[in-house]
Design brief:
- By secondary structure, the protein is of the alpha/beta class.
- It has helices spanning about 1-15, 20-30, 40-50, 75-80, 100-105, 120-130, 130-140, 145-150, 160-170, 175-185, 195-204; strands at about 35, 60-65, 90-95, 115.
- Strands 2-1-3-4 form a four-stranded parallel beta sheet, with helices on both faces.
- Helix 5 (about 100-105) links the parallel strand 3 (about 90-95) and strand 4 (about 115).
- The longest helix has 14 residues, at about 1-15.
- The radius of gyration is 18 Å and the shape is globular.
- It starts with a helix and ends with a helix.
- About 40% of the residues are buried.
Length: about 200
């Protein structure tokens, strides 16, 4: 686990133009696939989903990397894909970021559909899969009910569908989106995992 974390950090350094020992680490760890994710909340959700399925991705030769935003996909795809480490590329992205991901994949010589698009984003898929009632239960259980009720009174939220309100609420405070990404993924029951991560895990 420590070496897998070191590899993930080294990849970030390489993608930012630094020098690191990615090739040596990749060979020692047997990494064959890189899962590209936009941010930390996606990472938290994917790791929780993998754990609940009993998957040890590092042991399977899979490195899950958060890129700090879809705009960085080109650098990460080149660093990890055929022009760099030669790893197989896959991942998840927000639907609006699909063009960036397709261009990044093409730049790295990977299939255009290597990175799968969520309905809006991964949080949106998790909220839809779990259902708004269950998500509101999670909000109350986390002690965020007062903040949630205050949020609902904002003029911009009036009349919006509850699922969209919940999705927006998760991103209104630093760290909340990451925390709920993990919690909502863990709360899903059998057969509730949304299609994009289900397809992602099936391809690994």
């Amino acid at each position: 686990m420590a070496e897998a974390s070191a590899f993930r950090e080294a990849v970030g350094g390489w993608a930012d133009g630094g020098r690191a020992s990615e090739r040596e680490l990749a060979g020692r760890l047997g990494v064959r696939t890189a899962v590209l994710l936009e941010g930390l909340s996606d990472l938290a959700a994917v790791e929780a989903l993998a754990a609940r399925q009993g998957r040890d991705l590092a042991a399977e030769g899979v490195c899950v990397v958060q890129m700090g935003g879809a705009m960085n996909v080109g650098r990460y795809a080149v660093a990890l894909g055929p022009p760099g480490l030669g790893l197989r590329l896959t991942g998840l992205c927000d639907v609006r970021e699909r063009p960036f991901c397709e261009r990044g994949s093409d730049r790295a010589g990977a299939p255009a559909d290597a990175v799968l698009a969520c309905s809006a984003d991964l949080e949106d898929d998790l909220v839809r899969a779990l259902g708004t009632a269950r998500v509101e239960e999670a909000v109350r259980a986390e002690g965020d009910d007062r903040a949630w009720r205050t949020f609902l009174r904002r003029p911009a939220q009036l009349g919006r569908p509850l699922s969209q309100q919940l999705r927006r609420f998760l991103g209104t405070k630093k760290g909340r989106k990451i925390r709920y990404g993990h919690l909502l993924a863990e709360a899903l029951g059998p057969g509730q995992v949304p299609a994009p991560p289900t397809d992602l895990f099936a391809s690994l």
